Amino acid sequence: MKENKKVRNVLQKYMQWPVVLSVLVLCANGAVGLVSGKAGMVMAVFTVLYAFCAGVLFWYGKKRILTGLVGFAADFDQSQKNLMASMELPYGIADEAGRLLWTNRAFSAVIKDEKSARRSLTALFPEITEEGLEKMDHALEVQCAYGGAIYRASIKRVTIQSDSGLLSAAPGQKTEQQVLAVYLYDETEIHEYMQAITDQKMVAGLIYLDNYDEALESVEEVRRSLLVALIDRKVSKYISGVNGIVKKMEKDKYFFAIEQKYMPSLEAERFSLLEDVKTVNIGNEMAVTLSIGIGINGDTYIRNYEYARTAIDMALGRGGDQAVVKNGEKIQYYGGKSQQLEKTTRVKARVKAHALRELLETKDRLLIMGHKIGDIDSFGSAIGVYRIAAALGKKAHIVINEVTSSVRPMMDRFINNSDYPQDLFLMGDDAAELADPSTALVVVDVNRPSYTEEPQLLNLVKTIVVIDHHRQSSEIISNATLSYVEPYASSACELVAEILQYVTDSIRIKSLEADAMYAGIVIDTNNFTNQAGVRTFEAAAFLRRNGADVTRVRKLFRDKMEDYKARAEAVRQAEVFEGAFAISVCPAENVESPTVVGAQAANELLDIIGIKASVVLTPYNGKIYVSARSIDEINVQVMMEKLGGGGHRTIAGAQLPGATVEEAKEKIKDVILAMKQKGEF
Question: What Rg do the C-alpha atoms of the chain give, in angstroms?
């Protein structure tokens, strides 16, 4: 606007020059007349003629010049429109709602003359939303896919006048309006090249046989080499099928490398090698299982290998028989249908016990904590670790914020007991004040930072020990100095009971402590019917020898009438979904620890014929607590991980904040249907 006014003023001044010169000539004529009258008369004739010509030029030439200028402007505007219309870059103008007002020929060719009813940016390109257009300030760039091509849509907000020809207005009236200028940049070829580069990236992978030694022992010695050869052939054939290379590093470990373009097909078939290797049978009583760890999209090949190492550790930590893909910070799990084989040797327990003793000998104080809303397994294992600290002469405290009804009867036996210090149990805030460089932290029965009783302690204490029996997820305590996570174990109390036998010579535990640990094993195994192995009974026998009393434990954990009624109501209201999944809701009214009752109800639902897995929802403290249980066919840990939880293969749980019971039910049903469709059970 300012430039147009400036040009208009210059033209007006230029047209006034003949009038100004006429005044100047008139003044010169007067000066000449003063010098000579005759000369002044002669010059006056020429002055009149000049003034006449100047007037004619000013009054009549002005109109012709302006007409010419207007014609030039019109021709220029039309040329500009033709240039915009014929511009090869797709360009269009839309109103603020995204409706297209005008497009050039290149833009029309892109949208292929869509019907006027759909000539809207939001209809043509779903990636462009009305909310995005409303929130944009001056510019917006969106990646769009249309007609098999990929475009970068650059949208800019501009002001346009009605006299530009693109907007109409009333005669003699000028208006201004905000519109959107839209540019489409075809980046299909760039993305094809980028995808080609990505497809050619190397993917590093590791394959570990989970039960190599056990499988070999189950077959005749003369046929063991044949079993190994068949396994090697299965692995080599699988990797060769995707044009990869595989190298056997040890008797039960392989390294392989493939191009990244084959990853989608491997993930789509959910790594069929996991099931294929189980078909190898030459008389071996035990099926061979393996774990796969893959690292992709690292900055370097070394980083991909590091990702693969982390992934294989995750696979083994979750029980094996599964594939784990680590893509940067993102981790995907596949498989995990088999029950992990219990280790028959205690060598690892002895090594961990000696390492724990060496760590604690360098510290003055020990803090012990379990998970939020602790159960008796968490409490019992914490008591066991306290006994280890006491045997080494170290001061120890158990961190517990909320005491549940399942823990209270056992905890009351330690409070005001002269055999134990008054500050044995501490709140989380009090424990945080004690944290210093001479303090060690032992986390029991949990390996997820957000689920611990007091997460801030993980940042305050440098020396951290983790003892747990739950399968690891993508969220782990990464700064642990010593980690003993064994998914095959029935409970954390079982692991602590084994460590107790090796941490120091001739250790003796009190009957109260033995009761607490024995109760943890009984509760987590549902009276030795779930996840109980040979070492479970050996740990229970060790505790019985140290004074654990079965009758006393049973009396401590008898139910209150309100709890029993709530559990019975949850069983009564159970809904059978897809013929094999029992889904119910546990009432929380008049129940001191509804989450514990919900878990008990989930256990009881498994006793119904045809039920493969049970899921009980418990509304408590503004959240929906989910308890999932199974016997053998369903991996409920994978199910709960899809809801943000985790746990064990047959015992798992999750928390759903901000959801109603009905919404939580629908989420669980959607997860079951999705897993069933993918063949995960």
Answer: 41
The residue written with tokens 């005669």 in the block is 171
What angle separates helix 2-15 from helix 62-86, to the nearest 10 degrees? 150
Fill in the amino acid letter for 273.
L
Distance CA 300, CA 316 (A): 25
CB 602 within 8 A of CB 628: yes
Residue 620: what are its φ and ψ, rounded to 5°? -160, 125
**Cβ neighbours, 10 Å, residue 210:** 20
pTM: 0.58
Read off the pLDDT of residues 443-465 as tens digits, 9 standing for 90 and up: 999 888 888 999 899 989 999 99
What pairs with residue 245 in β-bridges? Answer: 257
Q: How far does CA 408 lie from the centroid of its chain?
A: 37
Helix (H, G, I), strand (E, B) or coil at 525: coil
Cα separation, 176 vs 288, whole angstroms = 76
- What are the phi and psi torsion angles at 206 (to 5°)? -130, 140
Lay out the sheet containing 365-369: strands in order across.
Answer: 425-426, 395-399, 365-369, 439-444, 463-468, 482-485
Sign of the dihedral through C-alpha 618, 474, 316, 293: positive
**Neighbouring residues of 297: CB distance < 8 A, sequence distance ≥ 6:** 201, 260, 304, 327, 328
**DSSP string for 382-404:** HHHHHHHHHHTT-EEEEE-S---
Residue 4 — φ and ψ, nearest 5°?
Answer: -60, -45
| Alpha carbon distance 482, 521 (integer Å) | 23
Amino acid at 367: L
Whole-angstrom distance, CA of residue 316 vs CA of residue 46:
112
pLDDT in tens, 174-203: 445 678 888 888 888 888 888 888 888 889
d(CA 655, CA 645): 7
